[in-house]
Amino acid sequence: MKRREFFSKGTKVALAAGSIPFITASCASTNDVVYNKKEDKWHHLGTGESGIVNRKKTTEFDVAVIGGGAAGICAAVSAARNGAKVVLVQDRPVLGGNASSEIHVHLNGVNNIKGKAERETGLIEEILLLNRFENEQESWSVWDHVLYEFVVREPNLTLMMNTQAMEAVMEGNKIKSALCWQGTTETMYTINADVFIDCSGDGLLAATSGAEYRTGREGKKEFDETFAPDEPDGWQMGATLIMESKDMGRPMKYSPPSFAIKYTHEGAHKKRHFKGFQDGIWWIEVGSDNDIIADFEQNRHKLMGYMHGVWDYIKNSGNFPEAETLALDWVGSFPGRRESRRFIGDYIVSERDMTEHKHFEDAVAYGGWSLDEHNPGGIENLSEPPSYFHYHFKEVYQFPFRSLYSKNVSNLMFAGRNVSQTHIALSSSRIMATCALQGQAVGTAASICNKRNVSPREVGQKHINELQEQLLRDDAFIPKRPANDPLDLARKSSLIFGSTTSSGAAKNLLNGMSRDIDGEINHWQSDGLSANVQLEWETPIDLSKVELKCDTNIKRNIMMRKDSRNDELYGNGVPKEMLKTLSLQGRVNGKWVDLGNISENKTRLIKFSFESIKVTAIKIDMTKTYGAENVKLFEVRCYA
Amino acid sequence: MISFTKLFFWLIILPTLWLSPFEGTQNRFKTIKHEVIINHPGEKDPVFTILNEIQNQDGLPTRYTMDVYSVICLEEVCKVIPVKLFWNNTGEYQKYELAKGETLEKYEADLFETEDYIKLQSILANNNSPFKEVYIDEILTVPDEHGNEDVDAVSGATALELDEKDTVPGAALTCFTLWHWANGDVVLKIKAQTGKSASEIQLIDFILDKNNTYFHIALEELESRELYTAPFIDATIQKVLKEESVLRPAYKFLEKAGNDNYLKASKTLFVQGHKEQKLAALQSLKQTKQNVPKLYLDTLSDKVSTLNSYQETSLLLELMQSKNPNSQQVIKNVMPLLESEFLIARRAFWFLKNQILDDNQVNLVNAFEEQYKDRL
Fold it and tell me: pLDDT tens-digit profile of A451-498?
């Protein structure tokens, strides 16, 4: 049906159990609660007035981001911070997607490369750090609000919750508008934007735009993938429901509900282990070899049954005496999805790109989770291992920009599990912090589209250096791609030195690499505190911004975990290495002038912004960390 | 346990180190038993045990031993073998011994092979072994140690991934248990004990030793005994002139010394030291609450023209500005810097602009200002 016809004829809207209507375009009806407002007689008893409610709104934005998970949040915030007027459309009542309080999945990333993390920096780092400051108690629902705060505090960003982007209105090969239904206000929004970014996972908006996509598993031949099946098929990894228990300190009985599906563990593969079952079992998973989106409600019901069945087995089989005093404390009702549509870009990332560490000139993100392909059938195929864990990376791999925009819809980008990649590549890149990096990349790219009036493809072809440089400035990391920003005045300084040095060197702060990696040290570390770093210019410069990257120990994970693990690899608090208190001075006519003070720093990327001033030197005085005896920096930048 | 004689390959590899001086002259050595409390990550509660300190005829601790268990046993599923561990006097693990006739076991009752004993020795001797970062429950639940398991995105359930080179296949639990005995809490206890047992002469030897660990042991002990007298200060200066990596702990110690000793140390480090020693001395003098006489600072300023870097020059000028402003001698020493390379010249200029100058000096400073007015 053409869009115009949709408006004129009206469409049947069935209000399902949830608040989101399901539009069946082929079945027009006069009972359209959305558009046929003339029959809706709102009568206000207080005023005695009757009227027709207006439940149609049109809004205009530079960039519309669909989906409020890690990828969508980072896409929206990066676009907004880089100057675009942005709307973030989220179909759930909370942000966070799989990591939200609705689902409880750990926000994993490159958790473990040869025993250490290689943590994602940029916006996702900022989010995870903010959570460590504002959510010391590690509450999932407080985490939702940390994400909410992270989004709503952005002045250029409008957040629409409980809003489903349902259909694209096209103009040629461009999306002109997204039709979005906000269930809580019974309002149909028409969101017009220059650029659309679908980070929704399932990608309904992108699909309705006619963007090409694929589902299922590629056969071995297509991309010469070692771990792909011999022949292509339709299998998509499943969704999982999590359960969590608490120790009541006394024996607790458990009776399964009527919808529980009996579980015996008979014939189960030995790798279906129960370690950490108190916090949920990831292999309670059901997928599909056909239309996994259509199957969702059926699979959700099954998953609830399996989840209670497995818990019944744990509680009542006698095999888990340690579970005697445990009781379910939180049970998921909304499964966390792994896979459905994968949209086609100008490039499709496949297994060998990752395992052979292909270098992409347009690299904008990276990953390093294992090739963690779950078995076909999920819990309904018990004799298989729950995941094959085909391959463990020894270093991170790059992800190219060409896989993050549509090959046939000119103003559409995507980030998250729905990007242009094979099923096997997805098995690694689907991890949320990796998706978040893609999100920051496309959000930043969208701001360039907006500034330069170009398409995403043109950003890739003509402005990739600008995109990469902006990402690096905003603390993203691109493997083997040092920053080299010609506007950075720190690089033009005549001298840089630290007051003391216990490792690295102050000159490393200008080398464009904002982490220690590939066996190279790229930091300066003081010998004790207080300490300072000073830059000198032979001729005065106009300065209004100084930006630092401090150490947050990115070799140790900081995402919130249900077990609150706190050891060498996982931390459950603010990293002690992080710089807490610092001040900035500029030298004007031979005298040091205060340019800024930060007493409780909460970010890795630390920004000072001030009225433009002419200086011949700056001095960064650092007096406290969150516990480490030395302070470590990775970068200093200066801008006019 | 001392009589246990089951020796393995490592004894063949390094026989002289462990066998000859000790076994042959046992009567000249004294063993002192210390009750210690050790936290082991595989144990819920702290473990009370005995640490044996072996002193030579001079009362110097030369090595330590402790009897431990090979495996922390849960649900009675593993065999426990007593093991004796040996450390040197800085807490570095040296070797292990088993009781005669005892053998270590792997999963499912497989016995250790000869090469497994050698590998265990190399694992225990690596104080950065991956076992440092492994949880015991990761080992207990994953018999397959070769990396075929991983972490799933959803629950974050972890399974152990160790390279074969980092573990004895089938005996990760033994490796984990013994590694933490060998490299855990006990190391700090040994260092502290070595310091306590050392005589003052031995502490001076420690300060001067090439191995910096001895230096740290000595300084901890000197601070605990509140010994800040000349022999220790002199030894510390001597050490720090050669080894800049210990500057910070050294200065923490020196700053507690009496004023004369402190000033002597700072001057020596400033005059004789390299850049890092000079910077440390200047920084300390600038920040210290000790009395720093103006005459003393005047003398230091005589060296300003010998300084090799902007940073040293700038810090010296900061020190003079804050503790010895308007000194004629300092001004006289700094004036020639106006002819130095530009950054240093400009720094000198700004220093001089804040001093009370005579007419000639004012003229020179003004001339500099006029010449470089676009670069100030």
Answer: 999 999 999 999 999 999 999 999 999 999 999 999 999 999 999 999
Q: Hey, are the CB atoms on B155 and A281 less than 8 Å from each other?
A: yes
Q: How many CB atoms lie within 10 A of CB B225?
A: 13
| C-beta separation of A166 from A181 below 8 A | yes
What lies within 8 Å, CB to CB, of A91 at 6+ separation is: A20, A67, A68, A162, A163, A164, A165, A200
Which residues in chain B have their CB less than 8 angstroms from residue A111's CB? 151
- pLDDT at res. B150: 42
Please indicate, yes or no, whether residues B150 and B36 belong to a single structural domain of this protein: yes
Instruction: Tell me: pLDDT of A376 over 60.
Output: yes
What structural domains does chain A harbor?
3-54 (no CATH), 59-216+340-473 (3.50.50.60), 242-331 (no CATH), 489-639 (2.60.120.260)
The pLDDT tens digits for B102-138 are 888 776 667 888 898 999 999 999 988 877 766 666 6
Q: A476 to each of A126, A206, A232, how far by Cα in Å? A: 11, 26, 35
ipTM score of the complex? 0.82
pLDDT at A326: 97
Label residue B73 by pLDDT band (50, 70, 90): low
The label of the residue with tokens 């985490």 reads A143
Residue B279 resides in a domain? no
Q: Kindly determine whether residue B283 and residue A281, on different chains, have CB atoms separated by under 8 Å.
A: no
Cα separation, B195 vs B208, in Å, equals 14
The residues that bridge with B197 in the sheet, in sequence order, are none
Q: What is the pLDDT of residue B78?
A: 64
A632-639 vs A187-198, strand pairing mode: unpaired
Smallest CA–CA distance from A111 into chain B, residue? B151
Close Cβ partners of A515 (under 8 Å, ≥ 6 residues apart): A121, A477, A522, A554, A634
**Strand pairing report for A56-66 and A21-24:** unpaired
Widest pairwise Cα distance in chain B = 93
Is the predicted pLDDT of residue A33 greater than 60, yes or no? no
Chain B residues touching A115 at Cβ < 8 A: 130, 133
Distance from CA of B57 to the nearest CA of A (A): 39
Examine the domain organization and report whether B157 and B205 are in the same domain.
no
Strands A56-66 and B61-69: unpaired
Q: For testing the chain B interface, which of A497, A533, A542 should be mutated: the one with the most B CBs within 10 Å?
A: A497
* Beta-bridge mates of residue A525: A503, A632
Q: B376 and A275: CB-CB below 8 Å?
A: no
B155/A106 Cβ within 8 A: yes
Residue A275, pLDDT score: 83
